[in-house]
Amino acid sequence: MEEDEELEKIKRRKLGQLMKKDTEPEKKRKPALNKPVEVSDATFKDMIQNYPLVLVDCWAPWCGPCHVVAPVIEEMARDYAGRILFGKLNVDENRRVATQYQIMGIPTLLVFQNGKLVDRIVGAMPRQMLEPRITRYL
Questions:
Q1: What domains does the chain contain, in order, with CATH numbers?
Q2: Grouped pLDDT means (10 residues each) for the chain, 138 residues
Q3: Catalytic residue among 55, 63, 121, 130
């Protein structure tokens, strides 16, 4: 009889632990995003601090080279989902971040590792040149 009571206590405790895991805050669970995320002045800091490796594509709608590099960024976001978070920051609409990181030419790709800027890539380039510059931080 005592063994049955002890077993029931263990079952309840385990069930409680499992239920608690399922209700973890969303912030702790980082979904694997397979496409670039829109970034703004308001969301920028949280994004670079909450993911271990982030690439931010600084662009503008009128920029021709930005449109050339966009499909490369989208392709890499699919290929590296869960390992690298890709973001897109429209510099015309988000001047605070553009000023803070002294974006003088676009496209500019900012690479952050653990919240710190580790690389800056200016200009459009093909994937075979861009990929090694980013993946070395994995």
A1: 37-135 (3.40.30.10)
A2: 73 71 51 89 96 97 97 96 96 97 97 97 96 95
A3: 63
State residue 48's pLDDT score: 96
Let me know: does 119 contact 137? Beta carbons within 8 Å: yes
Tell me the whole-structure pTM to 2 decimals: 0.77
From 56, 58, 66, 72, active-site residue: 66
Nearest to 88 by CA among 102, 105, 104, 67: 67
Strands 85-90 and 37-39 come out as: parallel
63 part of the active site: yes
